Amino acid sequence: MHDILPAEMPVWDQLEDGYRALVESYGYQQIRTPIVEKTALFARSIGTVTDIVEKEMYSFDDRNGDSLSLRPENTASVVRAGLQAGLLHDQQQRWWYSGPMFRHERPQKGRYRQFHQFGAEAFGIAGADIEAELILLASRFWKCLGLQQIELQINSLGSSESRSSYRDLLVDYFRDHADALDQDSQRRLESNPLRILDSKNPEMQGLIENAPALHDSLDQASRDHFHELTDILDQTGVSYRINQRLVRGLDYYSHTVFEWVTETLGAQGTVCAGGRYDGLIEQLGGKSGYAAGFSMGCERLVAMLIDQNRDQDSSGCDVYLAMRGEGSIAVAHRLGEKLRDQLPRLRLVVHAGAGSFKSQMRKADRSGAKIALILGDTEIENETVTVKYLREDKAQEECSQVEIAMRLKSLSANL
Ligand code: ATP
Ligand code: MG
């Protein structure tokens, strides 16, 4: 589990503000659910034979002896909340969330035990138009963030009937190659053979490449659904690659699954993943319904943004107000308050903690500020302040205290 230090926060802010504005522009509403849920919720939804439930959950008994878990993802919680509030039956909902998730994985670059996801979930819509909308929304996010080099991969798992006939084919194929299966795959052969396709073990890749293709098992309705999706994507200019080996790590998907993958992050290259999961609502005790959504990994997006914005300013300060002489402290704070009234967006640090003028200027420099304002006896007497440019080769100048707000505004477009 990692700390997010102040220097990284501007990128997180950019991501969070950008995501909120984006989902709101598509008419999605925010939902927040608890970080802790009953363990049974995840066992029932994600599936007991998944990595997440088998070995990644932080589970514990509370004081009543109930088994609880830190949420490893948020879709199950959102469906539970929607069902509990009676908001999923016979109605459409478009919701979004953001927050921390917890999985006991081997920590490495792009993989943490507490990480953050943004997600969107849409309920009550049967057609592939909603999958297209979710894809358009996420694609717009990459565009807004200026992220390139993210490839969209899509696939169809088909209806549950298609899936089960494919499952039989797959079991036959892997049984014929049982000696080439690794331990995880042998275990999954009976319980969840589709997940073998999702194996990250390089030694399994050859076998997986030659497995029967899923699309040959799709029934007509499943093919039509997938075609409806690709048609909208084609007509809205979204590029994608059909990847028949794409199955999702979670059990509850049917029909469309999709992922955005980048090669810029090394091994942990999936930045967003989702699809249709109609079955989950019934699985969690509701009447059958329609559902589709995605979630994205914020840490991976932050890594891409930091890489891209290397030389952007990550300081927390525009102007540093320094003082010469004890008598100027109160006057400096008075001026500081006045500036904050006049320029609500100004990030102003008023020097605190005394110290020589030289050490104040060192702090001003380290703060990242572009400008230092200096208040000394002379300035107080003249009701002025000295403006010193910290990053430009420009002579310092004196400015009247009445005009300093206007002066700062003229120097920075952001104010
Ligand atoms: P992966 O194949 O990378 O393990 P997953 O299939 O387990 O991903 P999902 O459950 O679909 O991932 O979660 C959606 C997104 O959340 C992932 O695409 C990834 O960007 C991010 N994510 C998942 N697990 C982690 C983690 N442990 N640390 C950081 N980000 C993660
Ligand atoms: Mg995983």
Give a description of the structure.
The chain has about 425 residues and is α+β, with helices and mostly antiparallel strands. The chain has two domains: about 5-160 and about 220-310, Bira Bifunctional Protein, Domain 2 (BirA Bifunctional Protein, domain 2, 2-Layer Sandwich); about 320-410, Rossmann fold. The protein contains 15 helices and 16 strands. It has helices at about 10-25, 40-45, 50-55, 75-85, 130-145, 160-175, 185-190, 205-210, 220-235, 280-285, 300-310, 330-340, 355-365, 375-380, 405-410; strands at about 30, 35-40, 60, 65-70, 95-100, 115-125, 150-155, 240, 255-260, 270-275, 290-295, 320-325, 350, 370-375, 385-390, 395-400. Strands 1-5-6-11-10-9-7-8 form an eight-stranded mixed β-sheet. Helix 12 (about 330-340) links the parallel strand 12 (about 320-325) and strand 13 (about 350). The structure holds adenosine-5'-triphosphate and magnesium ion. Adenosine-5'-triphosphate (ATP) binds near residues 105, 117, 272, 296 and 299.
Instruction: List the uncertain runs.
Output: none
Q: Roughly how much helix do the residues carry, as a percent range?
A: 25-40%
Proportion in β-strands: 15-25%
Our count of domains comes out at 2
**Bound chemical compounds:** adenosine-5'-triphosphate, magnesium ion
Number of strands: 16
Strand-pairing-aware structural class? alpha+beta
Can you identify the CATH superfamily of the largest domain?
Bira Bifunctional Protein, Domain 2
State the CATH topology of the largest domain. BirA Bifunctional Protein, domain 2
CATH architecture of the largest domain: 2-Layer Sandwich
The outline comes out as: elongated
> What is the residue-averaged pLDDT?
93
- What is the CATH class name of the largest domain? Alpha Beta
| Widest beta sheet: strand line-up | 1-5-6-11-10-9-7-8
Provide a count of the helices: 15
Radius of gyration: 28 Å
The largest β sheet comes out as: 8 strands, mixed
How many angstroms does the end-to-end distance come to? Answer: 37 Å
